[in-house]
Write a structure and sequence with these properties.
Organism: Halomonas huangheensis
Protein name: Thioredoxin domain-containing protein
Oligomer: single chain
CATH architecture of the largest domain: Sandwich
CATH superfamily of the largest domain: Immunoglobulins
Largest sheet: 9 strands, mixed
InterPro entries: Cyt_c_assmbl_TM_dom, DsbD_gamma, DsbDN, Thioredoxin-like_sf, Thioredoxin_domain
Membrane topology: Multi-pass membrane protein
Number of helices: 25
Number of domains: 4
Structural class: alpha+beta
Keywords: Cell membrane, Cytochrome c-type biogenesis, Membrane, Transmembrane, Transmembrane helix
CATH class of the largest domain: Mainly Beta
Number of strands: 24
């Protein structure tokens, strides 16, 4: 594990938390358990050197550059978080990692326990964390032996490892700090004396008397701990909080009840799972952020009689304000992610359906606004329905994530039928009444058509997991149902926003070309991306079904197209009831489309057998040189124990972003050569047909969909999460680091 070993209380917090809690938008803290402890690059030499490439800048400052022999001086490890980032106290709370030190000192020189300033509380979901969100300093006493001559040089060096976190990320960082001292008269440096005065002022004041603690087993609330702290009754308290340094002694997120009993302050809270075998070390905050440090011995704490209640604070009481902040952040992320989805390759073909409508309505602002609202309603409605489906299925215990509907080949067949029908309509095989009916029918059909276009756009857009979406959708799973549905609605609003802007700003609409004969040619040209979309869906079916199933699905589509062709013939001949052939074949095609996948389904192993599935014995030999494996958690753990560099990624055949990344970055000869030379093993998780194990793994990494790319460097046991959009050099640069 290295120096940044995980506190056991964090492991218990993760084990006890329900899965949705682990998908908090505060991936900031979850990442401290899940991401890799990679060696950092920050190196600070002395106090003057700063770094812009680290999230918490560090430096080492000595109070005296000439410490006296046989005396003690103080070193300050100065931590300067960038805006929005924070570091951790020596007991980080529910989630997080405390700083770790590896001192390299001259013979005879020693350091004592570091002194930390009073921490702050940071509640995200129901995880309480003990952090510093502003610049701070950790003071370390340095003991100089008495047998050193004046003028003896002292090289002091510390390898520091710490965790820097913010709302959407956690980064393990490392710094090598050093300073050179000389044995002298012990006079403090005037340059830094004011800083040391301020840093000491931020330390908790030592409480002169010892406290007493007792574990109490209550039938209604379980095991609790009660602490009696000697404190005069006239000492003012303002929102007190107890920070316990002993790992596992208390539940950091539990409610803390403070009561007065004469000259004692009684604190009662939920006990942790570890009974301390030494005195309890803690800090209690009082008025003005002042902290009192004390030790408590095991003993008897009398039950409260006429005690006066002072305060109680807990995760539950702060949850409302925390939820509002998380919700607003996630909502903005969902809207931004929805807007960006419009330029993603999985959505762009569907948007071509609105080009003709925008041009046709450029002269009618009222109709344009009506269609814009209808389109927006369709998009938002589908996003809310899909979100509600995810929440309902997960509440029932089913592991599903975003785009879960496309893991069912029956849905793919249905989408293929719909996309094919749209493509042949744009190509002119048949006509829809809304295109050339009377004005009143066209107006009504336009709004209805816009609504269903929005439905289709949102439904097909969901396989994409673009920028900002991972955090937003992770938060949606965490939040209460109503708030979660608001996030899904925000995603739909973002998808519809460009068309909504065109509809409500006539000046933009007037810049579009006026209706004319050119529209028919453009309409036929726009059939091409729809045919490409249908072809992509057929390819997805080829990954989900056997070859016979793919042929059967193609036959179903051909049946529908035959009915549409007959409808087109009847329309051009002006015959009555032209839609009879289409309706008849559509009903049959939908029925067959529901039955075909069940009749020709195949397992993931057999589906990949034609391309040497990584799980098959043949593949083990064929891929030996490439070290390509299918995802398996037990095998992943075994490889991690072997100190093997690992690249693990999760994909789906219906995820266009995944396929683009594979083409441009993963399945490149230069990447394969670099991985082979470095001995990198690649592990692939296929989420095409859904997999509860993969879904749970994605959830633990704050994702509800694919793609997800993880890099395990040698000597680490936690991954580095790579961006969702890879560049051609993204992976080769990892090997070169």
């Amino acid at each position: 594990m290295g120096l940044l070993s995980m506190p056991t209380t964090n492991l218990r917090a993760l084990a006890a938390a329900p899965l949705p809690r682990l998908l908090s938008i505060a991936a900031v803290l979850i990442a401290s358990i899940l991401i890799s402890m990679l060696p950092g690059t920050a190196v600070a030499q002395g106090a003057a050197e700063g770094h812009s490439d680290v999230m918490i800048r560090t430096s080492l400052v000595a109070e005296s550059a000439r410490p006296a022999a046989g005396e003690q001086t103080t070193l300050a490890i100065v931590m300067q978080p960038q805006d929005g980032w924070h570091g951790y106290w020596k007991q980080p709370g529910s989630i997080g990692l405390a700083p770790q030190y590896d001192w390299q000192l001259p013979d005879g020189v020693t350091v004592a326990e570091p002194a930390y300033p009073v921490p702050e509380t940071l509640l995200i979901d129901d995880l309480m964390n003990h952090v510093y969100e502003h610049p701070y300093a950790i003071l370390v006493p340095l003991n100089i032996p008495d047998d050193l001559d004046e003028g003896t040089p002292l090289a002091v060096r510390v390898n520091l490892q710490y965790l820097a976190c913010r709302d959407d990320a956690c980064i393990p960082e490392r710094a090598t700090l050093s300073t050179r001292l000389t044995v002298g008269d012990g006079e403090a440096s005037a340059r830094h004396q004011a800083d040391f005065d301020d840093w000491r002022q931020a330390l908790p004041r030592p409480l002169g008397a010892r406290a007493t603690y007792e574990y109490i087993d209550k039938e209604d609330t379980g095991e609790r701990i009660r602490i009696a702290i000697p404190l005069p009754a006239n000492v003012k308290l303002e929102q007190p909080h107890l920070f316990v340094a002993n790992d596992g002694a208390v539940d950091p997120a539990a409610r803390q009840d403070f009561n007065r009993e004469g000259d004692k302050l009684i604190v009662e809270t939920v006990a942790g799972e570890t009974l301390p075998d030494e005195p309890l070390e803690a800090v209690v905050t009082i008025a003005g952020g002042t902290g009192l440090a004390f030790q408590a011995d095991a003993g008897s704490v009398a039950a409260l009689s006429t005690a006066r209640h002072v305060a109680g604070n807990s995760a539950e009481e702060e949850q409302a304000s925390s939820t509002v902040g998380v919700m607003l952040t996630a909502l903005l992320g969902a809207i931004a992610g929805g807007v960006l989805l419009n330029i993603m390759p999985c959505v762009f073909p569907i948007l071509s359906l609105k080009v003709l409508s925008l041009a046709r309505l450029s002269g009618g602002p009222r109709e344009a606004r009506r269609e814009a609202l209808a389109y927006t309603a369709g998009v938002i409605g589908v996003c809310i329905l899909l979100g509600a489906g995810i929440l309902a299925l997960r509440a029932a215990g089913t592991q599903v994530g975003w785009a879960f509907q496309l893991q069912d080949p029956r849905v793919i067949v249905g989408l293929t039928l719909l996309i094919s029908a749209i493509a042949f309509n744009l190509a002119g095989l048949f006509e829809l009444g809304g295109f050339n009916g009377g004005a009143q029918l066209a107006e009504k059909g336009g709004a209805v058509g816009a609504f269903w276009t929005g439905v289709l756009a949102a439904f097909v857009a969901t396989p994409c997991s673009g920028p900002f979406m991972a955090t937003a959708l992770g938060a949606a799973i965490l939040l209460p149902p109503l708030a979660a549905l608001t996030i899904f609605a925000g995603l739909g609003f973002g998808i519809a926003l460009p068309f909504l802007i065109f509809g409500y700003f006539p000046a933009l609409s007037r810049k579009l070309p006026r209706p004319g004969p050119w529209m028919q040619s453009v309409r036929h040209a726009l059939a091409i991306p729809m045919f490409i979309t249908a072809l992509a869906l057929f390819w997805v079916l080829g990954q989900q079904l056997s070859s016979d199933g793919l042929v059967a699905s193609l036959a179903v589509v051909m049946l529908l197209v035959t009915g549409l062709w007959l409808t087109g013939l009847r329309q051009r001949s002006a015959k009555r009831w032209p839609w009879v052939p289409s309706v008849f074949t559509a009903v049959i095609a939908l029925c067959l489309g529901w039955l075909v996948p069940a009749a020709f389904s195949q397992s993931a192993d057999s589906r990949n057998s034609g391309s040497q599935s990584p799980d098959s014995p043949i593949a083990d030999a064929a891929n030996e040189s490439r070290q390509l494996l299918s995802f398996d958690e037990s095998r992943l753990e075994a490889l991690r124990q072997q100190n093997t560099p690992l690249f693990v990624y999760f994909t789906a055949d219906w995820c266009v972003t995944c396929k683009v990344n594979e083409k441009t970055a993963i399945d490149r000869q230069t990447t394969r050569d670099a991985f082979q030379q470095a001995g990198v093993t690649t592990m692939v998780g296929d989420w095409t047909n859904g997999d509860p194990v993969i879904t749970a793994f994605l959830n633990r990494h704050g994702r509800n969909g694919v793609p997800l790319y993880l890099w395990y460097a040698p000597g680490t046991d936690k991954p580095r999460v790579l961006p969702q959009l890879l560049t051609p050099t993204s992976l080769t640069d990892l090997v070169a680091e």
